[in-house]
Amino acid sequence: PEVINGRTHKATVVDLSPWVEYEFRVLASNSVGIGEPSRPSGLLRTKAAVPVVAPTNVSGGGGSRSELVITWEPIPEELQNGEGFGYIIMFRPLGSTTWTKAVVASVEASKYVYRNESISPLSPFEVKVGVYNNEGEGTLSSISIVYSGEDEPQIAPAGASALSVSAAEVEVSWQPIAWNRHTGRVLGYEVRQL
């Protein structure tokens, strides 16, 4: 409350965050003005509650073949709402109806790697990340699409040809490899002389 009647000697403070330490001061006021604040009260921690803030920036990708790498922004301590805080990771292949669930019992975690030989390279997965603490499971993030790790390109560039430019230079050219799930993203080419 902003102003309390002068005959009242206690007040309820509302809209505090769960599992946060607070200290309080009291100020007296009258028609002339506001006096000096009291000394601070002792530290008092509010009770724990189920976390309500979901991780943000859920993404991922990369990693090795047969891996699904999932990343997120960690939840700051003041929003964890209690002890026993951790993350719940849920994912499924795009189009599937069954979620796989994993738990990461680490406050600092911001990454989870799922390894399975049956994952095809560059497969899309629906992913969401949630939170929990000793009070229960909290909110899940919205769904993000994350691709599994790539394999090395399985197709060689075609149409390689060489043209002599000078006594010390040769120009080599080739047709680029088209992107697909079997070739992955081509980040560069290597030219070797035999």
Describe this structure in words.
It comes from Trogon melanurus. Pfam families: fn3. This is CNTN6 protein. GO terms for molecular function: cell-cell adhesion mediator activity. One of its GO terms (cellular component) is plasma membrane. The chain is mainly beta and 194 residues long. Among the domains are: 56-148, Immunoglobulin-like, CATH 2.60.40.10; 153-193, no CATH class. Helix content is 0%, strand content 35%. The protein has no helices and 14 strands. It has strands at 21-22, 27-29, 34-37, 44-45, 59-60, 67-71, 86-93, 100-104, 111-115, 124-133, 136-140, 144-147, 158-164, 170-175. The strands form five sheets. Strands 7, 8, 10, 11 and 12 form a five-stranded antiparallel sheet that branches. A hairpin with a 2-residue loop joins strand 10 (124-133) and strand 11 (136-140). It is elongated. The chain starts with 20 loop residues before the first strand and ends in a 19-residue tail after the last strand. The mean pLDDT is 92.
